[in-house]
Write a structure and sequence with these properties.
single chain; alpha+beta; Pseudouridine synthase; Archaeosine Trna-guanine Transglycosylase, Chain: A, domain 4; 3 domains; ten-stranded mixed beta sheet; five-stranded mixed beta sheet; about 40% strand; elongated
Amino acid sequence: MNGFLLIDKPQGMTSHDVVSKIKRKFHLDKVGHTGTLDPFASGLLILCIGKATRLSYLFSNLDKTYRGTIKFGVHYDTFDITGTKLKTDNKEIIQELVEKEMKNLTGSYEQLPPMFSAIKINGRKLYDLAREGKEVEREKRHVKIHAFHIIDKIDDKTYEFFTSVSKGTYIRSLAVDLAERLDTCAALETLTRLSVGKYDLNHAKTIEEVTKDDMITLETYFKKFPTIMLNDYMIKLVKNGVYLDERQIITDQPFIVCDQNNEMIAYYEVVNQYQYKPIIVF
């Protein structure tokens, strides 16, 4: 098995738990994921199977969409309701002002990641430091919010929302930043990842439902990539991991090498001008 599985992750399970369960279910050695989804969150988790584990980075730059709920008037150390409550606030929440500040957050801004995150500083993950009661200085990240709006008002303090964001955006931080603009506090109450790039939760399966037939094969994934056809002599070199250059192709885009029978042999990426490196040999 070499390819990708779209998994509908349940609440309460870590991304690593999902990887472990899929390994056991299909008796696989190599399984990875393309981006952590917090245990309290649910939704789309894309897994890489077999040789595809070398391609997880291809998904890291993709935009993501989420649906969730924000609870105003309460703040937790984790920025979501799973942590330790630090403070509360009884300020009245006015929907029109919430909508206005959501709109103001749309676009680019510098976001401070939460302490409870997997970012490493000096070789240590922030959430390990946070569990030791330590808070360290961390750099803000440039993120882009493509859309952020209310879906429904649940009660006076709780709103369901939709957001579309760039890579590296923490929705927990987005909720906290929104509250700060309203001069109050808030926490993320629920979160569901709806999509990663063109991949949608509607096409995902639960761990129990998913089968080998649901896998997006490497052949399917690379179907629309540019291709070059090489002779048998060059194909032997390609299979041994040779770099290609301007004698074979001039391009600034990744491409697929095919043999004379139009069979996919390898996936290459640009490393320097006129120099191309094999990432996967099929």
